[in-house]
Specification:
This protein is α/β, with parallel strands linked by helices. Helices cover about 40% and strands about 20% of the residues. It has two domains: about 140 residues, 3-Layer(aba) Sandwich (Rossmann fold), CATH 3.40.50.2300; about 160 residues, Rossmann fold.
């Protein structure tokens, strides 16, 4: 009887110890503005980096993951909740998430790391890679727009009017439109932009855009449009309009080609920054970083439907080619 009582008490105290340990796990609040595919990839990369360094959710770290579901008020509340819950670190995926985190923690207390933010300085994170808020760092996702538009010009040398959708309420979208117009002018191209208020408007706005006598679409990357990119792809296919994407995964959703960053890799690199901070390094000593390797993805099925034939040189330098089996194009021609 006494042995049984000792065993029960031992189990009880072990349970209390484990529960107490769980309550004191280093906690990272992870949140994103919506389910855009590039944000999902970045989040997966972040978690993989933690796992590869032996940090497992609920075992030796606690990951609290939340989604704003495209509602800015909800995004702001999530950030406020993280501050109220006194998490050890906030991981902000997207410009709206970073802005919300900065507003929720004005005293620069909780470390904030970010990824998939086109221009962190306009979002309020600082003034330069080295001169930033003491509790903030991360990886900027400023897209290679000059290279992307140069690629459009390479594939369609006679093109003049390039259409794109943009979301005025997104700081990053406005920034990308500004860059696109500047770089397009250098190439003798004109950007024709159609605004979008939310995801439900993407299909109709894309239809309006293709009726503006555009020669092709180069869709800048933003959270609202990326989340509904399938609709852009359908409109391009129905109207045989060449569609070039601003993020790599757009080739899985109707773009014939895309030039950009690997967002899984971006998230992974951000996870490595998180590890440095968890291990005691100050965010103020970690410069804001940028991606370096630009990748090219192609979709042969989409290219065929949009009237695009990629020359051999382009095929040879592509990092990924989709739809080769499904395409009726004779690859021997290349």
């Amino acid at each position: 009887m006494r042995k049984a009582l000792v065993l029960v008490l031992s189990c009880f105290f072990l349970f209390l110890h484990c529960k107490k340990s769980q309550e004191h796990l280093y906690t990272i609040g992870i949140f994103q503005v919506n389910d855009a595919p590039h944000l999902e990839e970045a989040r997966k990369g972040f978690i993989r980096a933690l796992k590869d360094n032996n940090l497992v959710d609920s075992l030796n770290v606690r990951l609290v993951t939340r989604n704003g579901e495209a509602d800015i008020a909800r995004v702001q509340k999530i950030a406020q909740d993280f501050v109220r819950e006194d998490v050890d670190m906030i991981f902000a995926l997207s410009t709206p998430s970073l802005q919300a985190a900065l507003n929720a923690s004005p005293n620069h207390g909780i470390p904030i790391i970010f990824t998939s933010v086109a221009n962190p300085y306009r979002a309020g994170a600082g003034r330069s890679p080295e001169d930033h808020l003491s509790n903030v760092t991360g990886i900027a996702s400023t897209g290679p727009i000059r290279e992307a538009l140069s690629f459009v010009k390479e594939i369609l040398p006679d093109a003049k009017r390039i259409g794109t959708l943009w979301t005025p309420s997104e700081l990053n979208s406005d920034y990308y439109l500004e860059i696109s117009r500047r770089e397009a002018q250098k190439l003798g191209l004109e950007i024709v932009a159609e605004p979008v208020a939310n995801q439900s408007e993407v299909f109709l706005s894309a239809q309006i855009l293709v009726n503006k006598k555009i020669d092709a679409m180069y869709q800048i990357s933003d959270n609202t449009i990326n989340a509904a990119f399938d609709a852009v792809g359908r409109v391009a296919e129905e109207n045989s309009i060449p569609l070039f994407g601003g993020f790599l995964l757009s080739t899985h959703r109707g773009a014939c080609a895309a030039i950009g960053w690997d967002f899984f890799d971006m998230g992974y690199k951000t996870g490595e920054i998180a590890l440095r901070i968890k291990n005691g390094e100050r965010p103020s000593r970690i410069p804001i970083q940028y991606m370096e390797k630009i990748k090219l993805h192609l979709n042969m099925r989409a290219a065929e439907k949009q009237g695009i034939i990629f020359p051999a040189e382009v095929l040879n330098r592509a990092d990924e080619i989709l739809g080769v089996e499904e395409s009726s194009l004779d690859n021997s021609e290349y």
